[in-house]
Amino acid sequence: MTDASLATEVAEKPRNQWWDVWAQFRTHKGAVAGLFFLIFITLFVTVGPLIWGIDPGKLDIRNKDVRPIYMAIFDSGAKVSWANPMGTDNLGRDIMANIMQGGRISLAVGWTAMILAVFLGTLIGVLAGYFKRLDGLLMRFTDLVLALPLLPLLLVMMLLFRDPLRAAFGPENGIFILIVTGIGITSWMQTARIVRGDVMALKEREFVLAARSIGTPARRMITRHLLPNVLSPIMVSATLGLATAIITESALSFLGLGFPSDFPTWGKILFDSVDRMTAFPERVIWPGLAISLTVLSVNYIGDGLRDALDPRIRGQ
Description:
By secondary structure, the chain is mostly helical. The protein has 16 helices and no strands.
Protein backbone atom coordinates (compact mmCIF):
# COMPACT_ATOMS: atom_id res chain seq x y z
CA MET A 1 0.00 0.00 0.00
CA THR A 2 1.45 3.37 -1.05
CA ASP A 3 1.64 6.37 1.21
CA ALA A 4 -0.86 8.23 -1.01
CA SER A 5 -3.53 5.51 -0.75
CA LEU A 6 -2.96 5.22 3.02
CA ALA A 7 -3.42 8.96 3.42
CA THR A 8 -6.60 8.80 1.36
CA GLU A 9 -8.05 6.05 3.56
CA VAL A 10 -7.16 7.97 6.72
CA ALA A 11 -8.75 11.13 5.34
CA GLU A 12 -12.01 9.39 4.47
CA LYS A 13 -14.71 9.94 7.03
CA PRO A 14 -16.88 7.04 8.15
CA ARG A 15 -20.20 6.83 6.32
CA ASN A 16 -23.09 8.29 8.24
CA GLN A 17 -26.14 6.05 8.61
CA TRP A 18 -28.60 8.85 7.93
CA TRP A 19 -26.70 9.86 4.81
CA ASP A 20 -27.13 6.29 3.57
CA VAL A 21 -30.84 6.49 4.43
CA TRP A 22 -31.20 9.73 2.44
CA ALA A 23 -29.28 8.25 -0.51
CA GLN A 24 -31.63 5.25 -0.56
CA PHE A 25 -34.69 7.46 -0.06
CA ARG A 26 -33.76 9.54 -3.12
CA THR A 27 -33.93 6.46 -5.33
CA HIS A 28 -37.67 6.12 -4.56
CA LYS A 29 -39.16 8.56 -7.07
CA GLY A 30 -42.63 8.43 -5.57
CA ALA A 31 -41.29 9.23 -2.09
CA VAL A 32 -39.27 12.19 -3.38
CA ALA A 33 -42.29 13.52 -5.27
CA GLY A 34 -44.40 13.04 -2.15
CA LEU A 35 -41.87 14.91 -0.02
CA PHE A 36 -41.80 17.85 -2.43
CA PHE A 37 -45.60 17.98 -2.55
CA LEU A 38 -45.88 17.83 1.24
CA ILE A 39 -43.41 20.72 1.51
CA PHE A 40 -45.36 22.61 -1.16
CA ILE A 41 -48.77 22.11 0.46
CA THR A 42 -47.33 23.04 3.87
CA LEU A 43 -45.92 26.29 2.48
CA PHE A 44 -49.16 26.88 0.57
CA VAL A 45 -51.32 26.74 3.70
CA THR A 46 -48.87 28.51 6.05
CA VAL A 47 -47.15 31.17 3.93
CA GLY A 48 -49.88 31.42 1.28
CA PRO A 49 -52.40 33.39 3.42
CA LEU A 50 -49.72 36.00 4.17
CA ILE A 51 -49.20 36.53 0.43
CA TRP A 52 -52.78 36.12 -0.76
CA GLY A 53 -54.15 38.47 1.87
CA ILE A 54 -57.87 37.75 1.39
CA ASP A 55 -59.92 37.05 4.50
CA PRO A 56 -61.42 33.54 4.07
CA GLY A 57 -64.51 34.58 6.05
CA LYS A 58 -65.22 37.79 4.15
CA LEU A 59 -68.70 37.79 2.59
CA ASP A 60 -69.24 39.47 -0.78
CA ILE A 61 -72.72 38.66 -2.08
CA ARG A 62 -72.17 40.73 -5.23
CA ASN A 63 -69.21 38.51 -6.07
CA LYS A 64 -70.81 35.13 -5.30
CA ASP A 65 -70.65 31.99 -7.45
CA VAL A 66 -67.55 33.04 -9.40
CA ARG A 67 -66.21 30.09 -11.39
CA PRO A 68 -62.53 29.05 -11.55
CA ILE A 69 -60.38 30.70 -14.18
CA TYR A 70 -60.10 27.54 -16.28
CA MET A 71 -63.89 27.57 -16.87
CA ALA A 72 -63.38 30.42 -19.35
CA ILE A 73 -61.78 27.87 -21.70
CA PHE A 74 -64.94 25.75 -21.82
CA ASP A 75 -67.58 28.47 -21.43
CA SER A 76 -66.92 31.94 -22.80
CA GLY A 77 -69.83 33.31 -20.79
CA ALA A 78 -68.66 31.90 -17.43
CA LYS A 79 -68.37 34.34 -14.56
CA VAL A 80 -64.65 34.30 -13.79
CA SER A 81 -62.26 36.69 -12.08
CA TRP A 82 -58.49 36.79 -11.70
CA ALA A 83 -59.09 38.18 -8.22
CA ASN A 84 -60.60 34.79 -7.33
CA PRO A 85 -58.75 32.22 -9.50
CA MET A 86 -60.38 29.23 -7.77
CA GLY A 87 -63.78 30.94 -7.67
CA THR A 88 -66.06 31.91 -4.81
CA ASP A 89 -68.89 30.13 -3.00
CA ASN A 90 -72.56 31.03 -2.71
CA LEU A 91 -71.73 33.67 -0.08
CA GLY A 92 -68.92 35.26 -2.06
CA ARG A 93 -66.11 33.83 0.06
CA ASP A 94 -62.85 33.21 -1.78
CA ILE A 95 -62.31 29.47 -2.24
CA MET A 96 -58.50 29.68 -2.44
CA ALA A 97 -58.37 31.55 0.87
CA ASN A 98 -60.61 28.92 2.45
CA ILE A 99 -58.50 26.07 1.05
CA MET A 100 -55.42 27.68 2.60
CA GLN A 101 -57.11 28.24 5.95
CA GLY A 102 -58.71 24.80 5.93
CA GLY A 103 -55.42 23.14 5.05
CA ARG A 104 -53.67 24.86 7.91
CA ILE A 105 -56.21 23.45 10.37
CA SER A 106 -56.34 19.99 8.77
CA LEU A 107 -52.55 19.65 8.78
CA ALA A 108 -52.32 20.98 12.35
CA VAL A 109 -54.85 18.37 13.48
CA GLY A 110 -53.04 15.65 11.51
CA TRP A 111 -49.56 16.43 12.88
CA THR A 112 -50.72 16.88 16.48
CA ALA A 113 -52.86 13.73 16.50
CA MET A 114 -50.03 11.77 14.88
CA ILE A 115 -47.54 12.91 17.54
CA LEU A 116 -49.97 11.91 20.30
CA ALA A 117 -50.63 8.50 18.72
CA VAL A 118 -46.93 7.79 18.16
CA PHE A 119 -46.10 8.81 21.74
CA LEU A 120 -48.78 6.54 23.21
CA GLY A 121 -47.93 3.65 20.89
CA THR A 122 -44.20 3.92 21.58
CA LEU A 123 -44.73 4.15 25.34
CA ILE A 124 -47.06 1.14 25.51
CA GLY A 125 -44.97 -0.86 23.02
CA VAL A 126 -41.72 -0.31 24.94
CA LEU A 127 -43.30 -1.15 28.30
CA ALA A 128 -44.96 -4.29 26.93
CA GLY A 129 -41.82 -5.44 25.14
CA TYR A 130 -39.35 -4.80 27.95
CA PHE A 131 -41.34 -5.69 31.06
CA LYS A 132 -42.65 -9.21 30.69
CA ARG A 133 -45.14 -8.85 33.56
CA LEU A 134 -46.85 -5.96 31.74
CA ASP A 135 -46.87 -7.59 28.33
CA GLY A 136 -50.05 -9.63 28.67
CA LEU A 137 -52.09 -6.86 30.25
CA LEU A 138 -51.03 -4.14 27.78
CA MET A 139 -51.44 -6.35 24.71
CA ARG A 140 -54.92 -7.46 25.76
CA PHE A 141 -55.81 -3.80 26.23
CA THR A 142 -54.40 -3.09 22.77
CA ASP A 143 -56.49 -5.90 21.28
CA LEU A 144 -59.56 -4.50 23.01
CA VAL A 145 -59.06 -1.03 21.53
CA LEU A 146 -58.34 -2.54 18.10
CA ALA A 147 -61.67 -4.39 18.25
CA LEU A 148 -63.62 -1.15 18.74
CA PRO A 149 -65.06 0.49 15.59
CA LEU A 150 -63.07 3.69 15.12
CA LEU A 151 -65.55 6.06 13.50
CA PRO A 152 -68.57 5.23 15.70
CA LEU A 153 -66.36 5.58 18.77
CA LEU A 154 -65.21 9.00 17.62
CA LEU A 155 -68.79 10.05 16.92
CA VAL A 156 -69.80 9.08 20.47
CA MET A 157 -66.85 11.02 21.88
CA MET A 158 -67.82 14.07 19.84
CA LEU A 159 -71.40 13.94 21.09
CA LEU A 160 -70.41 13.42 24.74
CA PHE A 161 -67.54 15.90 25.12
CA ARG A 162 -68.18 18.51 22.43
CA ASP A 163 -70.25 20.95 24.47
CA PRO A 164 -68.21 20.73 27.72
CA LEU A 165 -64.91 21.33 25.88
CA ARG A 166 -66.38 24.16 23.82
CA ALA A 167 -67.59 25.81 27.01
CA ALA A 168 -64.22 25.36 28.71
CA PHE A 169 -61.81 26.28 25.88
CA GLY A 170 -63.92 28.06 23.28
CA PRO A 171 -65.59 26.74 20.10
CA GLU A 172 -62.39 26.40 18.05
CA ASN A 173 -59.90 25.31 20.71
CA GLY A 174 -62.35 22.94 22.35
CA ILE A 175 -63.11 21.12 19.10
CA PHE A 176 -59.40 21.04 18.22
CA ILE A 177 -58.54 19.40 21.55
CA LEU A 178 -61.41 16.93 21.22
CA ILE A 179 -60.59 15.87 17.65
CA VAL A 180 -56.84 15.58 18.29
CA THR A 181 -57.37 13.61 21.49
CA GLY A 182 -59.99 11.36 19.92
CA ILE A 183 -57.86 10.52 16.90
CA GLY A 184 -54.70 10.14 18.99
CA ILE A 185 -56.12 7.73 21.55
CA THR A 186 -57.70 5.55 18.87
CA SER A 187 -54.70 5.35 16.49
CA TRP A 188 -51.74 4.18 18.59
CA MET A 189 -52.31 0.43 18.49
CA GLN A 190 -50.34 -0.48 15.35
CA THR A 191 -47.35 1.53 16.55
CA ALA A 192 -47.49 -0.26 19.91
CA ARG A 193 -47.50 -3.69 18.25
CA ILE A 194 -44.56 -2.83 15.99
CA VAL A 195 -42.47 -1.31 18.78
CA ARG A 196 -43.21 -4.21 21.14
CA GLY A 197 -42.00 -6.75 18.59
CA ASP A 198 -38.77 -4.88 17.92
CA VAL A 199 -38.07 -4.33 21.63
CA MET A 200 -38.61 -8.02 22.40
CA ALA A 201 -36.08 -8.91 19.70
CA LEU A 202 -33.59 -6.24 20.80
CA LYS A 203 -33.56 -7.10 24.49
CA GLU A 204 -32.00 -10.49 23.64
CA ARG A 205 -29.15 -8.91 21.68
CA GLU A 206 -25.61 -9.01 23.07
CA PHE A 207 -25.24 -5.28 23.71
CA VAL A 208 -28.47 -5.21 25.75
CA LEU A 209 -27.51 -8.30 27.73
CA ALA A 210 -24.08 -6.79 28.40
CA ALA A 211 -25.62 -3.53 29.61
CA ARG A 212 -28.02 -5.45 31.83
CA SER A 213 -25.17 -7.53 33.30
CA ILE A 214 -23.40 -4.43 34.60
CA GLY A 215 -26.55 -3.22 36.33
CA THR A 216 -27.81 -0.59 33.91
CA PRO A 217 -31.16 0.78 35.21
CA ALA A 218 -34.26 -0.01 33.17
CA ARG A 219 -34.94 3.64 32.33
CA ARG A 220 -31.43 4.13 30.98
CA MET A 221 -31.64 0.82 29.12
CA ILE A 222 -34.80 1.94 27.37
CA THR A 223 -33.71 5.50 26.54
CA ARG A 224 -30.09 4.76 25.56
CA HIS A 225 -30.20 1.28 24.02
CA LEU A 226 -33.72 0.38 22.94
CA LEU A 227 -35.46 3.55 21.73
CA PRO A 228 -32.66 4.61 19.32
CA ASN A 229 -32.86 1.17 17.70
CA VAL A 230 -36.63 1.24 17.18
CA LEU A 231 -36.62 4.73 15.69
CA SER A 232 -36.92 3.43 12.12
CA PRO A 233 -40.31 1.66 12.50
CA ILE A 234 -41.57 4.56 14.60
CA MET A 235 -40.82 7.00 11.76
CA VAL A 236 -42.61 4.81 9.22
CA SER A 237 -45.58 4.42 11.55
CA ALA A 238 -45.67 8.19 12.06
CA THR A 239 -46.13 8.87 8.34
CA LEU A 240 -49.01 6.41 8.13
CA GLY A 241 -50.51 7.93 11.28
CA LEU A 242 -50.41 11.40 9.73
CA ALA A 243 -52.36 10.20 6.70
CA THR A 244 -54.91 8.44 8.92
CA ALA A 245 -55.38 11.53 11.09
CA ILE A 246 -56.03 13.80 8.09
CA ILE A 247 -58.60 11.40 6.63
CA THR A 248 -60.33 10.92 10.00
CA GLU A 249 -60.58 14.65 10.65
CA SER A 250 -61.95 15.19 7.16
CA ALA A 251 -64.53 12.45 7.72
CA LEU A 252 -65.68 14.01 11.00
CA SER A 253 -65.94 17.45 9.42
CA PHE A 254 -67.79 16.02 6.42
CA LEU A 255 -70.32 14.47 8.80
CA GLY A 256 -70.87 17.88 10.38
CA LEU A 257 -69.19 17.00 13.68
CA GLY A 258 -66.00 18.95 13.20
CA PHE A 259 -65.16 22.62 13.61
CA PRO A 260 -67.76 25.41 13.57
CA SER A 261 -69.13 26.53 10.19
CA ASP A 262 -67.05 29.73 10.21
CA PHE A 263 -63.86 27.74 10.88
CA PRO A 264 -63.10 25.89 7.64
CA THR A 265 -61.24 22.63 7.21
CA TRP A 266 -60.92 20.60 4.03
CA GLY A 267 -63.60 18.21 5.24
CA LYS A 268 -65.88 21.07 6.25
CA ILE A 269 -65.50 22.70 2.82
CA LEU A 270 -66.51 19.39 1.27
CA PHE A 271 -69.54 19.18 3.57
CA ASP A 272 -70.67 22.71 2.67
CA SER A 273 -70.23 22.09 -1.06
CA VAL A 274 -72.16 18.83 -1.48
CA ASP A 275 -75.58 20.49 -1.83
CA ARG A 276 -74.48 22.40 -4.95
CA MET A 277 -72.06 19.82 -6.29
CA THR A 278 -73.89 19.37 -9.59
CA ALA A 279 -73.89 23.06 -10.48
CA PHE A 280 -70.43 23.83 -9.04
CA PRO A 281 -68.35 20.61 -9.04
CA GLU A 282 -65.10 22.52 -8.52
CA ARG A 283 -66.11 23.30 -4.94
CA VAL A 284 -65.86 19.60 -4.17
CA ILE A 285 -62.87 18.98 -6.45
CA TRP A 286 -60.51 21.49 -4.78
CA PRO A 287 -60.71 20.18 -1.18
CA GLY A 288 -61.01 16.59 -2.43
CA LEU A 289 -57.79 16.97 -4.41
CA ALA A 290 -56.05 18.60 -1.45
CA ILE A 291 -56.98 15.71 0.86
CA SER A 292 -56.23 12.98 -1.69
CA LEU A 293 -52.87 14.34 -2.84
CA THR A 294 -51.70 15.10 0.69
CA VAL A 295 -52.57 11.62 1.93
CA LEU A 296 -51.05 10.03 -1.19
CA SER A 297 -47.82 12.01 -0.74
CA VAL A 298 -47.56 10.98 2.92
CA ASN A 299 -48.11 7.32 2.00
CA TYR A 300 -45.38 7.50 -0.63
CA ILE A 301 -43.04 9.08 1.92
CA GLY A 302 -43.82 6.21 4.27
CA ASP A 303 -43.00 3.67 1.56
CA GLY A 304 -39.73 5.43 0.82
CA LEU A 305 -38.77 5.60 4.49
CA ARG A 306 -39.59 1.92 4.97
CA ASP A 307 -37.25 0.95 2.12
CA ALA A 308 -34.55 3.45 3.09
CA LEU A 309 -34.50 2.36 6.75
CA ASP A 310 -34.37 -1.35 5.90
CA PRO A 311 -30.65 -2.31 6.15
CA ARG A 312 -31.17 -5.25 3.80
CA ILE A 313 -32.30 -2.92 1.01
CA ARG A 314 -29.93 -0.09 1.93
CA GLY A 315 -26.96 -2.45 1.76
CA GLN A 316 -27.67 -3.51 -1.82
